[in-house]
Write a structure and sequence with these properties.
With 382 residues, this protein is an alpha/beta fold. The protein has 14 helices and 17 strands. Helix 7 runs parallel beside helix 10 and helix 12 packs across helix 13. The chain is globular, with a radius of gyration of 21 Å. The C terminus is likely disordered.
């Protein structure tokens, strides 16, 4: 099977049959935020259920046009050293290889790639590879975009080969939702597994950062694709944001965490949904997200509870590590300024906060003395 890709609401209507009003609303959304999906993924949706979680993931919703959010919520532009190359954390370099995905997630934090004229990805990555070669502190490289598995295997292999010739690059990561969106990309191309096996060595592994957002995406054929990757020596882990009306239910996250661990896929990160353009209705409040994860873990083994709940903020990855009735406790799991790594933050509880800045602004308005990033001195613990 090679699923056909759809790029317009007209094609979607012909495939599943839409009501005139919903078709009109979707077409209005796509004037701002494009649509892309394929027949395989769309076949997983219960079209009689307007609240189907996979429908929420990939089908345009008029609430995307309600405003709010920004094109670059994590300020990636500040850490772009060359076209297609980001370097925010000392040990990690990002190569943006593609501005195409197996589907366009409605909550994508890089949706600017799909709606802007200025390209951030690059076909010729030689300058980025030279940058990585000249920065020995970079021990791991994340291939991202877009989705690197939308590239032809020979193009992906060329990048992997170059990276493996850089001694200090020990880990190569590939960020991809293709196992969920189109597992046939993996199953129908034996050369992909051969290439991955060649460059994922016992001492220097390739990791695939899968994006399963809901257990319904973990179909039998998807699990076959994961198994093929694992047999090629690739370590498959998973990351997902908490998404309102998709997985914002402890029972759903319990099922997701358990199915991942049963399949040998380690839960890696759970993200707070970033405040990108059109994303507000996907964002659950931070403290509610934390509670969802904690309740989900009650029915999980330790192997299913390895994910960290973080916000990918401009200043770093901020882990939410605890809360009481009155306070929220956070920690810099990773930081743009290495001196901040491991620092603890304590804020008054703010049940309406959807992002780190909501806590910062609340503290500023309280009139406390401020430290870097606007954090009140009384709440910064060394």
């Amino acid at each position: 099977m090679n699923p056909r890709y759809l790029h317009s609401i007209d094609e979607l209507d012909n495939l599943v049959g839409l009501m005139p009003k919903e078709r009109e609303e979707m077409e209005l959304v796509t004037k701002t935020f494009p649509f892309r999906a394929n027949e395989y993924y769309l076949s997983l949706i219960d079209w009689k259920n307007l609240h189907d979680p996979l429908r929420r993931i990939v089908v345009p919703d008029p609430r995307e046009l309600k405003g709010g959010g920004c094109p670059d919520p994590s300020c990636e532009n500040n850490f772009t050293k060359l076209p297609g190359l980001q370097h925010k954390y000392d040990q990690t370099g990002l190569l943006l290889l593609s501005d195409v995905c197996g589907g366009i997630c409605r909550f994508c934090f890089r949706k600017r790639l799909f709606i802007g004229c200025e390209r951030e990805t690059i076909r010729d990555v030689s300058a980025g590879l030279e940058y990585i070669h000249s920065h020995p502190e970079i021990t791991n490289v994340l291939l991202t975009g877009g989705d690197p598995l939308t590239l032809e295997t020979r193009r992906l292999e060329a990048v992997l080969k170059e990276l493996r010739e850089i001694d200090h690059v020990n880990i190569i990561r590939i960020g991809s939702k293709m196992p969920a969106y189109n597992p046939y990309r993996i199953l129908n191309d034996p050369s992909l597994a051969d290439v991955l096996a060649r460059y994922s060595t016992p001492a220097k592994r390739i990791y695939l950062m899968a994006h399963y957002n809901h257990p319904k995406e973990m179909t039998d054929v998807s699990m076959q694709a994961v198994e093929q990757l694992q047999r090629a020596g690739v370590i498959v882990v998973n990351q997902t944001p908490v998404l309102n009306e998709v997985n914002s239910d402890p029972a759903v996250f319990t099922q997701l965490f358990r199915k991942l661990s049963f399949a040998g896929v380690s839960p890696y990160y759970v993200f707070q949904c970033r405040p990108s353009m059109g994303n507000r209705f996907f964002q659950t409040p931070v403290e509610r997200s934390y509670e969802i994860i904690q309740h989900a873990w009650q029915a999980c083994s330790g192997l299913a509870k390895r994910a960290r709940f973080v916000m990918s903020h401009a200043t770093g990855k901020i882990e939410i590590v605890g809360k009481t009735a009155n306070h929220v406790f956070m920690r810099y799991h990773q930081a743009a300024d290495t001196a901040d790594i491991g620092k603890m933050l304590v804020f008054p509880s703010n049940p309406l906060a959807r992002w780190f800045d909501d806590y910062r602004h609340h503290a500023v308005h309280a009139g406390d003395t401020l430290l870097p990033f606007g954090i009140p001195k009384m709440h910064w613990l060394f």
